[in-house]
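step: validate -> pass
step: tokenize input -> pass
step: predict -> running
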Amino acid sequence: MTVFIALAVSMTLLALAWLVRPLLWPAKRHGVSAQRLNVSIYRDQLEALERDLARGAISAADCEATRDELQLRLLDDTEAPAAVHAGDASFWTARRTAVVIALLLPLGAGAMYWWLGTPAAIDPVAAQKANEDQVAKMVDSLAAKLKANPDNPTGWAMLARSYKVMGRMAEAEQAFGKAGDVVNKDPDLLVDYADLLAVRANNNIEGKPLELVNRALALNPQHPMGLMMSGMAAYRRSEFGAAVTQWEKLLLLLEPDSADAQQVQSNIDDARAKAGMPGVPKPRAGGAEAGKLPPVDAAAAGAMTPEKINQMVEGLAARLKANPGDLQGWVRLARAYKVQGKLAEAEGAYAKAGKLVDADADLLMQYADVMATRSGKLEGKPMVLVKKALALSPKHPMALMMAGTDAYARADYAQAVKYWETVLPVLEPGSRDATLVAAEIADARAKGGIGLQFKAKP
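step: predict -> pass
step: emit ->
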């Protein structure tokens, strides 16, 4: 912005100087004086008259009369012009005209730019907001076209990725589901879909996300983000050898000594140490492994490093400070803070998202999860948010699970069973989550003395 203003001022001053200089410093006048020209003409006529008299072409009397006439005309033509009175001078002097131009030119240029130009483009925050608004319009336009013509798998894949970048995770998941075989044939789309599902499952890679990652690696065994997520899943299962295998493949694909390569090497060293594998670097003096970073979380998988994530989050926070009305921005910031473990900041960001959170069951549950994690309990405000989510989406899996957990903690086993039996059909049969919920239902039935209920047939 400063550079733009400096250039605009410089160009205005140059134009102003070019216009005003002739008025303040007029050029010296050169040329032939009218009086000298008249004198020269009459002198030539007198000389011609003398020559005519000498040749006898005219008489002396005629010569004398003609000479007198020429002298009178010479006196008349060479008389000094009458002095101009001060009161007859024009108001618009050169100096006053220069002052008016000096005032009107900058003001006119500024007004014209304000009217015809784009002043908001000077402000980086406003420019960023304008870009985001433009992207949102493009995405909404694509969604409208797909609604009218749903038989476009490639379009659904593009929409899913767009929604994911914008933080609209529920809509992104729906779009990925409608993309069909296009996703199953593209390792990039498979990994994007897996990352989305993992984020929505509170960064849990197990289950369908890992299944999608494995499909992606079957298509492209050297897919960087697929290798990172596969290694992370193995690390969380304490299968450190498998994690090392995947991350060492990834290390070969990265630029040596880059920040990403150093992070992956740090992950490998940590996994080797926990697995008791050879090749672990010796600790530095003092026993401290200075500069060593912990394994990256699922949200930082791929090419993103913790340092890059921190820079992005700080930049987003700065933009929202200047533009607090961006509710989608506050949601993105809240999610980023949650991934970073900054739960207090995440809770504050969700609160500032206001009406956007209140109208979205997924956002309500994310907000409730942050509050419950901070306080270590579900009762109170977290359960208020859970009930709001269930009012919007009665079969929301996470809301039903948390409501059941709250009822179980209050020894209201019948209510807990009711919530968990509602969520069970939503889960994939035979999956780990379905198995855990079934076990919770059995436990609650046993503690509450609740038998199986069969409805009488009509």
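step: describe -> DSSP finds 22 helices and no strands in the chain.
step: cleanup -> pass
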